Amino acid sequence: MSLLEIKNAKLKLNDKDILKGLSLSVNKGEVHAIMGPNGSGKSTLSYMLAGRGGYDLESGEILLDGQSLLEMEADERARSGLFLAFQYPVELPGVGGMSFLREAVNSRRKFLGKEELDHLAFVKEARKVASKMFVKDEMLKRAVNVGFSGGEKKRFEILQMAMLKPKISILDETDSGLDVDALKIVSDGVNAERNDDNAIVVITHYQRLLDYIVPDFVHILSDGNIIKTGGPELALEVEKNGYAGLINAA
Amino acid sequence: MLHNAKDKYITSVKDYVSQFEENSFRKLASNDFNSWPSPREETWRLSRLGVLSRKEITPIIPNSKKKVSSVSKFTGSTIIRFVDGALREDLSSKLPPGSSLDILGEEDSLTCFHKFKDSNLKDHPSTNVSFSCTPSIVKLTIEKNISIGGFFEIIYEGGDENLSVHPALYIELKDNSSITIIERFNHLSSLIMPLQLVELKQNASMNSLKIFNDNQQSYNLSANCTFLSDKSNYNSFSLIKGGLFTRSETHAYLKGENCSLNLNGVYLSSKNQHHDLTTAIYHDVPNCTSKQIVRGVLGGKSTGVFQGKVRVAPDAQKTDGQQMSRAILLSENAIANAKPELEIYADDVICAHGATVGEIDDEQLFYLKSRGILEKKAKQILITAFLNDIINESVEESVQNFVFEEAELALSEIISKEI
Q1: DSSP character for B77?
Q2: pLDDT tens-digit profile of B157-183?
């Protein structure tokens, strides 16, 4: 059984077909990259998976570990082990980073039947993970994403991923707005979380990120459907020839 | 002008003052109380008092033996208690050196009365009624060069159904003095009309925190008139959560250069409560700054009002006046009104204002939910953050926790019903 199974997903936004019967299977231990030009439906796919209001499927099915996600709200999906790293992480003025993380981690732990972490145990764990992501203590004391640089925001996203230990992570254009150094830090963070029990779906415009997070499969998304699937070499082809050739061939 | 003879409250106020001399401040004040403000008056359009003329209320005769029920929330604060609107020295603390509390005689009371009557609070109902009916005007003086460490906690309580209470406090900070005052309004009365006159002399600095938490059937019409001299600083924060109808009205006159003023506030409204923060800031001289941040959270069928007027006189160049109000509605039946009003007659000023009324931000809510946090908890986090922000900015650190706790009590009441 696949860890994540998207079957014939159709979705409309404002009466316009955005996803047109998309299917995708992701197994444990795999990293999948979804590449596509602007407007191909990449961000819609990530919001749909995460359960954002207004992004409900018209038809189709999504299964996480065999369990349908469609009837679940965003929070339940997250507790069940789905994580979305946002392309544009949202600022939360007045919400301290540490208490936000703790609330999120304990929600997941509670769902898994684990004991909630007390303040001290949590802070210790958070600091350990944060230092690996080069996230300073001071950043955790600030309000979530408020006044963070582009790189800091993305590092904080991956820090959340590392703390929540999801089954499947969707990284939505995690490379956007990052310089080479920041890209390396973020990618190292993601790679450290790769294991045989989880899976990662990387959504990106550019091949660059895939030099750092090497995928097992690359899918080309165009006009609401996956038009081609291949190995890492497919990303290089896109880099070399652009999307146009692939789309025309399909 | 003849008053409306059918209005029993107005008659009862006139009856009450009949015992005083013709030229006493009480009589002069009562002469000007002939009607409640009409909803046609712009500043009362959004907060109507018509219902008061149909109530059977009379001014209270203070009971000087009444026991108190509100306990101090701080250790080491200097406590001043008003019960039934009257100062209770027997229940108040010994004052620290450099400060004094006096009951004003007729002459000083008259001076105080004229200061109100010379301001734009001259027609406020509390001005005329409370000068008529107050047991006495109490003056708190802080002497020159005295910085009061710790803080004053002024607790107002007492009153009863169908009675009105009239505490009147005059605070004078002489040159280079400073103080922090926390006022807690915990009345049981039907009608509460507190008066406050604040005079900050050169380089004086006052932090003021007011918690309006009167009982759920009461009307509180608080009127505050503040005068700022050169280089003085008035930093005020009001938390309105109690009462059926609470209006805190503050008029600040910036009379000396280089003074600064913060008039911030939060209202937390549920059920059929009506909460109103009305301010008027008069920049009469150059080089002063004023800032107002107001936030409201509303549930049930409650109504919130923020009216903020900033007037910049022709000579008041280099004025910096900022005003921002935001309200979050948690119920379809709640209403928030915001009415910023800028009157600017000088040309070299920075003045900005903004007002938003809305629901909880969708994107923020989704972000929290996408981290596994339950919707209810996520909303609670966002609303709390909305308030924490302003409390952190407006309230001095040592009392922030107290304000958070006071706010959280009211907030959980609103949230439990709405989300």
Answers
A1: P
A2: 999 999 999 999 999 999 999 999 999
Decide if B395 touches A, using CB distance below 8 A: no
Give me the domain span that covers residue A63.
Answer: 4-94+164-249
Of all residues in chain A, the percent with pLDDT exceeding 70 is: 100
A116 within domain boundaries? no
> Residue B157 and residue B61: Cα distance in Å, rounded?
14
Q: The whole model's pTM is what?
A: 0.88
Flag if A94 and B389 touch (Cβ within 8 Å).
yes
Query: Dihedral of CA B215/B216/B221/B224: which sign?
Result: positive
Would you say residue A63 lies in a domain? yes
B290/B279 Cα distance (integer angstroms): 12
Residue A121 in domain: no
Q: How many helices (H) and strands (E) does chain A have?
A: 9, 12
B373: contact with A, CB 8 A cutoff: yes
On whether the CB atoms of residues B63 and B84 are closer than 8 A, the answer is yes
Amino acid at B95: L
Helix (H, G, I), strand (E, B) or coil at A164: helix
Cβ contact B269:B243 at 8 Å? no
Tens of pLDDT, residues B46-105? 999 988 888 899 999 999 999 998 899 888 899 999 999 999 999 999 999 999 999 999
Phi-psi region of B130 (alpha: psi -120 to 50; beta: other; left: phi over 0): alpha
Whichever domain contains A44, its CATH number is 3.40.50.300
Q: Counting one residue from A and one from B, how many pairs have CB atoms under 8 Å apart?
A: 77
- DSSP secondary structure of B140-197: EEE-TT-B--S-EEEEEEE--TTEEE--EEEEEE-TT-EEEEEEEEEE--SEE--EEE
A29 occurs within a structural domain: yes
Q: State the DSSP string of B324-341.
A: EEEEEE-STT-EEEEEEE
Residue of A nearest to B380 (CA): A95
How many structural domains is chain A composed of?
Answer: 1
| Distance between B327 CA and the closest CA of chain A, angstroms | 15
Q: What is the pLDDT of residues B208-234, one digit of tens each?
A: 999 999 999 999 999 999 999 999 999
Token digits of residue B188: 């049981």
d(CA A37, CA B89): 77
Minimum distance, in Å, between the CA of residue B1 and any CA atom of chain A: 53
Q: Give the model's pLDDT for residue A206.
A: 85
